[in-house]
Write a structure and sequence with these properties.
- With 311 residues, the chain is α/β, with parallel strands linked by helices.
- The chain has one domain: Aldolase class I (TIM Barrel, Alpha-Beta Barrel).
- The protein is 33% helix and 19% strand.
- The chain contains 9 helices and 15 strands.
- The strands form 4 sheets. A 7-stranded parallel β-sheet has the order 3-15-14-9-8-7-6.
- Helix 3 links the parallel strand 6 and strand 7.
- It starts with 5 loop residues before the first strand and ends in a 16-residue tail after the last helix.
- The mean pLDDT is 98.
- 3,4-dihydroxybenzoic acid binds next to loops.
- The site of 3,4-dihydroxybenzoic acid (DHB) has 17 residues, from loops.
- Belongs to the dihydroorotate dehydrogenase family. Type 1 subfamily.
- It is an enzyme of class 1 (oxidoreductase).
- Its cofactor is FMN.
């Protein structure tokens, strides 16, 4: 029997494939479709304290090789997602879901995490340090001093399982510096990568999304080599008790297989889920199982992190 089940921290999941934050996770209706699919779990749209409409439309565009977006954190607000998650954890006591969060300021981030700490929420929290699309707000994770300060402050009061959503890094020294910071804190997972920030797509001499004169986060096929490099660079540098969620450039079961080879314990699908809908989870799971069968693997732990190098 071939199984694609996995673990993040102390939680078990029946499948290692799920949605990436931002896709099929805005409201209960979308989340329910992921819940009732083959996905192992879901992550909610990154929530801020208050409801946000986000940037003007069009703000997302599928392209031949991926997608570009500048959504601007449209979300239904912290309470909406927390209430739904609390409802689901009563209904499905054996399942674990991921709650994605970030404040528009450091203070708001602390407000959100203190609310989680004081709630009955028993799942995983993903702190999004990598939103590239709010005009005037730089990505937190590209500022290592701010990242370390926030984590230091958070772990003074927060003791539930927490992970970090990271942007792609592009320099080996940055992998070293970032990993050194993450290794100081009791985080349960890191998620690599968010979109490659501030790309530009042009059609007929014109940008394809309205916010920020067309600049937006790039996802899909374009980003797979960057995603794999980030997963593997951190796999080699972070404590072994920190799990990695691999996100970026997953179109097929082979892409999931490669993320796991690089060290991912869970793999998220964004652009391809947007293009194909939640049936994508059964297609890609079947493709992954077919590869595992050909190679004689019965569980993902048999090849996770075992990327081969040249002599
Ligand atoms: C948005 C985009 C992101 O990549 C992210 O991590 C959070 C929010 C957005 O534009 O809504």
């Amino acid at each position: 029997m071939i199984t694609t089940k996995t673990r993040i921290g102390n939680f078990e999941f029946n499948n290692c494939i799920m949605n990436a934050a931002g896709v099929y996770c805005y409201d209960k209706e979308e989340l329910e479709k992921v819940l009732n699919s083959e996905a192992g779990t879901f992550v909610t749209k990154t929530a801020t304290l208050n409801v946000r409409e986000g940037n003007p439309t069009p703000r997302y565009k599928d392209t031949e090789l991926g997608s570009i977006n500048s959504m601007g954190l449209p979300n239904l607000g912290f309470d909406y997602y927390l209430d739904y998650l609390l409802e689901l954890q009563d209904k499905y006591p054996n399942r674990t879901f991921i709650f994605s969060l970030v404040g528009l300021s450091k203070e708001e981030t602390h407000t959100l995490l203190k609310k989680v700490q004081n709630s009955d929420f028993k799942g995983l929290v993903e702190l999004n340090l990598s939103c590239p699309n709010v005009p005037g707000k730089p990505q937190i994770a590209y500022d290592f001093d701010t990242t370390e300060t926030i984590l230091k402050e958070v772990f003074e009061y927060f003791n539930k399982p927490l992970g970090l959503k990271l942007p792609p890094y592009f320099d080996l020294v940055h992998f070293d510096q970032a990993a050194e910071i993450f290794n100081k804190f009791p985080i349960v997972f890191i998620n690599c990568i968010n979109s490659i920030g501030n790309g530009l797509v042009i059609e007929d001499e014109k940008v394809v999304i309205k916010p920020k004169n067309g600049f937006g986060g790039i996802g899909g096929e374009y980003v797979k080599p960057t995603a794999l490099a980030n997963v593997h660079a951190f796999y080699k540098r972070i404590r072994k008790d920190i799990n990695i969620i691999g996100t970026g450039g997953v179109l097929t079961g082979r892409d999931v297989f490669e993320h796991i080879l690089c060290g991912a314990s869970m793999v998220q699908i964004g652009t391809t889920l947007h293009k194909e809908g939640p049936e994508v989870f059964s297609r890609i799971t079947n493709e992954l199982k077919e590869i595992m069968k050909e190679k004689g693997y019965s569980s993902i732990e048999e090849f996770r992190g075992k990327l081969k190098y040249m002599d």
